[in-house]
Prior knowledge:
alpha+beta, six-stranded antiparallel sheet, 2 helices, 8 strands, 25% helix, 44% strand, elongated
Amino acid sequence: xxxxxxxxxxxxxxxxxxxxxxxxxxxxxxxxxxxxxxxxxxxxxxxxxxxxxxxxxxxxxxxxxxxxxxxxxxxxxxxxxxxxxxxxxxxxxxxxxxxxxxxxxxxxxxxxxxxxxxxxxxxx
Length: 124
């Protein structure tokens, strides 16, 4: 009986260990500051192949073919930061939007470049 009790105790303890859950939190995507008024977060899970500062803006190039997903992420990001879309244009392989936040203005352009998505964000 002692052996059975020991085996039963081991079985119960191994069951308890099997129920341990590990949760991992993914960190938020990096934020890029374009200007004092304009900040963007990068699309999580998509590789950035280039980040080029421009006068009053930035160009970010992703290795992806998911044009609509990249545009939707940057649009939601700007709206969540208090920007309001005032102009929208979708064409063959591109999206263009203009936003306002008080007196500040920003432009978002997203273009498909054959397996790469080019995102241009400008202030003004």
